[in-house]
Amino acid sequence: LGLALYAGSLCAASEATFLYHDYCVIGAGPAGLQAAYFLQRAGRDYIVFERSHAPGSFFALYPRHRKLISINKQYTGKSNSEFNLRHDWNSLLSHDRRLLFRRYSRDFFPDADTMVRYLEDFASLLKLRVQYNTAIIHVTLEKNEQAWNGHYFLLTDQDRKNYKCSLLLVAAGTWVPNVVNFPGSEYVEGYETVSINPEDFTGQTVLILGRGNSAFETAENILGVTNFIHMVSRSRVRLSWATHYVGDLRAINNGLLDTYQLKSLDGLLEGDLEDLAIIKDKKGKLHITLRFYLENRNISAGIDSITLPQDELDNFATRAPYDRVIRCLGWKFDFSIYNRSLRMMPGKGNIKKYPQIKPSYESRGTRGLFVLGTASHSVDFRKSAGGFIHGFRYTTRAVHRLLENRHHGVPWPSTVYPITQLTNSIIKRVNEASGLYQMFSVLADIILLRENATAFEYLEEYPIGVLAELETQTGRKARSGLFVVIMEYGRNFSGADKDVFYYNRAVGEAQHAWQSNFLHPVIYYYKRLPTEREMRLRHPDWPLPRPDAIHHIVEDFLTDWTAPNAHILPLRRFVENCLGTDLRNFFAESCFLFAFTRQKLPPCCQQGYMRMQGLVGSQELRHHAAQAGLLQDYTHTDFSDDRPPDSHAGSQEQLMRDHGMPVRPLQHLVNAKDE
């Protein structure tokens, strides 16, 4: 009995050492703070763990040369705050207008220190619950049937304090440097530690390993003081204006391309870095050779005993020795803190630096573990902006909405409108929605049709990768068909080898809208919700399975899709064809006539005129409609009774005479309609 009591007390003490929260968030970078904001607004029990003394510790160090490449556009010519977020790549989403990044910097490409200050204010002004100086060093699972997902997450920090949570949000980013090991790699300096003082490179010859923005940023800093710079990478340079991917080389950093192509000594080379080897001579110079030359040879024996490529090929490109070699290969996710029980596995191929996650941003190995921010970029790598603030601020909100429905019974936010507002709703969203615009081909607006297409339910910015699971993920029903509204580039317009400035690259006519190259709205119509099998078997270049009908709104130079003939009219006719109805708006006189000449009234008349709703007619309004050719002008008509010619009843009787219909007293007509 004593042993049993002692064991029970130990268990109780052990249980008490775990501090419990419903939600644990690892990392107080932009994604972690964004998740904390939504959790706090929803009144959830959460905690954010940050290893540093302040939020945004990554930006306190990187980029090394302190210039961000995220756009901070001050002026757009519009006052619509949602539209302006399309061109604000730094602000997080919140209700506080003080927390717009343009209030912190007026620079088009801001300084990284400004981002650190912004994130500090975001956390403090919104009173987010962040626990600083807490580095989570181990995460494991504890099976429990009463837990939300059948298990709890157990976290341990550097002080051996323990935490327990029902759901884990990983927003730690990618911060472990990518390192390639090859013979002589110990002579390579890393981007994270190399000097940023140009004077330290005066008169030197430099080789840079890598071809991303960090590599070109480093080259740009020392371009004017070096003898020459060579850059080696396994793939060709990819320019962001050609690929339309903001993670590729940006114009602000591409000065070395000028000096390369304008024959000023600098140059770019392609080759597998794992095939390289570096040998240091007695003078401290670094020589580049190939790994296979070193097979069965001792590097320590000296350079004179080793065959170099130029010994066999005297014009070998990198035959000149280098003073320094700098590694700029980016970062990868830290998998080391996660126990095997979580099955946090790296992706495959070019996304191996990210953890494997589903299109819902949930781990493929563990239910209840979601990856947010840069580390979630495997969902849309090299396709959209999910690895950057202006993209993952929206995907983080989408994850929050999924969790609100799953664990708290709060359905995905939606708005119900009469079917007459369908065209207007689509036009409004494609012209101002920032989430659709930034996360093109990833997030979409979903329009769920009600029975008989008399109304529709509008859901904003849903991840299309889990479209087949829409009903379970959102708590909304799609029984009568749906429209999916997304933004897309032209199929063959983006790519490292594409000429995006070719003549006649733009499409201007609505009949050729499907050939649009630039970002433009695309509307998919499905008579039923696509199945998981259809989503899985879709073409790899298609964001969605084959629809029952599809409509492209023609690209627009101003990204302003409000032209009546080029944009709105084709969209309305497409929707009408899908629904088999007439979505035009009519004056009361026309609805009155349709009531006697058609078996089915247009929705505008059903939901307006027949319910005694709509604008009250006036002489000025009727005159304007007559001038526009929308109504016949009865101003000078000689009516048979004493009613004024612009009265509503007089106009109705004249319409009936014009169409050969017998005229009866107005009261009799009203009674007939009621019957």
From TrEMBL:
SUPFAM superfamilies: FAD/NAD(P)-binding domain. Keywords: Endoplasmic reticulum, FAD, Flavoprotein, Glycoprotein, Oxidoreductase, Signal. Its cofactor is FAD. Signal peptide: none annotated. The keyword Oxidoreductase applies. It comes from the Eukaryota. One of its GO terms (biological process) is ERAD pathway. Residues 635-675 are annotated as: Disordered. The keyword Transferase does not apply. Pfam families: Pyr_redox_3 (PF13738). Residues 635-646 have a biased composition (Basic and acidic residues). GO terms for cellular component: endoplasmic reticulum lumen. InterPro entries: Auxin_biosynth/cation_transpt, FAD/NAD-bd_sf. GO terms for molecular function: flavin adenine dinucleotide binding; monooxygenase activity. Belongs to the FOXRED2 family. Interacts with SEL1L. May interact with OS9 and DNAJC10. Interacts with TXNDC16. Probable flavoprotein which may function in endoplasmic reticulum associated degradation (ERAD). May bind non-native proteins in the endoplasmic reticulum and target them to the ubiquitination machinery for subsequent degradation. This is FAD-dependent oxidoreductase domain-containing protein 2. It comes from Sylvia atricapilla (blackcap). The gene is Foxred2.
